[in-house]
């Protein structure tokens, strides 16, 4: 049996019509790993479920591991979908025990030299075994998809978790499992709007360029007379001094300045 044709990937200027753009898509971790990436959209980190563009995702699950690395912390989350996913966030580097012993052995510092304590890492209250609601952006590290955490919260009750399960199932049935199809006139309208927006941006760039160039010319025109007047004023005292010296020498003052070599 022949495979069904793949859905059309629409141009970038049509993405704002997709129901999955600019929203937290509540997905299973296994679905996040299965999202595809198409040529031409890597720079904006868009991934695709069929032809639906997805950039921001949300998952719920149990934290099964927490790993600390220099400058980042990784929470491994299991949502019982058959795959775990790593959720990463920036964090202060852990302080080595040797450094702590060295600080304790040093004499007391002056008040002005005391270092402030390092900033506490976010989400310190989340431990292994916590049920979490994670929101973030998809990224790839060593050919594996990760979630860069934007927000994360521990769920306090089973009722919260069940409510999110229902929301995830609703997204699947009402959005993901339905084909996303645009009419040709909608695509043409989006293209025209994109072209108009680009023309408007070009005109704005040209106006800014003209303003900057005009300002530079004006500053140069103001600076030239000022420099010329300054140069003429600098020349006048020296010319005056030379004239006075010639007058003194002409009126018999030459012997007075012989000792100076003038």
From TrEMBL:
Its main location: nucleus. The keyword DNA-binding applies. It is found in: Chromosome, Telomere; Nucleus. Residues 221-233 have a biased composition (Basic and acidic residues). Keywords: Chromosome, Coiled coil, DNA-binding, Nucleus, Telomere. Residues 214-247 are annotated as: Disordered. It holds the Pfam family Stn1. The keyword Coiled coil applies. Residues 31-88, 125-219 form the CST complex subunit Stn1 N-terminal domain. Residues 187-214 form a coiled coil. PANTHER family: CST COMPLEX SUBUNIT STN1 (PTHR13989:SF33), REPLICATION PROTEIN A-RELATED (PTHR13989). This is CST complex subunit STN1. It comes from Neonectria magnoliae.
């Amino acid at each position: 049996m022949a495979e069904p044709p793949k859905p059309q990937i629409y141009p970038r200027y049509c993405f704002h019509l997709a129901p999955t753009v600019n929203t937290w898509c509540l997905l299973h971790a296994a679905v996040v790993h299965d999202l595809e990436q198409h040529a031409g959209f890597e720079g904006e980190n868009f991934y695709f479920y069929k032809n639906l563009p997805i950039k921001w995702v949300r998952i719920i699950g149990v934290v099964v591991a927490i790993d600390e690395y220099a400058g980042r912390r990784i929470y491994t989350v299991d949502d019982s979908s058959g795959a775990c996913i790593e959720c990463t966030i920036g964090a202060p580097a852990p302080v080595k025990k040797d450094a702590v012993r060295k600080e304790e052995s040093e004499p007391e510092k002056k008040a002005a030299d005391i270092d402030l304590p390092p900033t506490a890492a976010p989400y310190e209250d989340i431990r292994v075994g916590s049920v979490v609601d994670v929101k973030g952006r998809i990224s790839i590290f060593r050919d594996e998809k990760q979630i860069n955490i934007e927000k994360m919260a521990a769920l306090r009750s089973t009722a919260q978790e069940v409510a999110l399960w229902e929301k995830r199932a609703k997204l699947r049935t009402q959005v993901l499992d339905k084909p996303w199809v645009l009419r040709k006139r909608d695509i043409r309208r989006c293209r025209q709007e994109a072209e108009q927006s680009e023309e408007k941006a070009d005109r704005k760039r040209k106006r800014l360029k003209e303003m900057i160039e005009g300002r530079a010319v004006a500053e140069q025109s103001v600076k030239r007379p000022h420099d010329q007047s300054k140069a003429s004023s600098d020349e006048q005292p020296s010319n005056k001094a030379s004239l006075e010296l010639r007058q003194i020498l002409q009126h018999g003052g030459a012997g007075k300045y012989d000792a100076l070599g003038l």
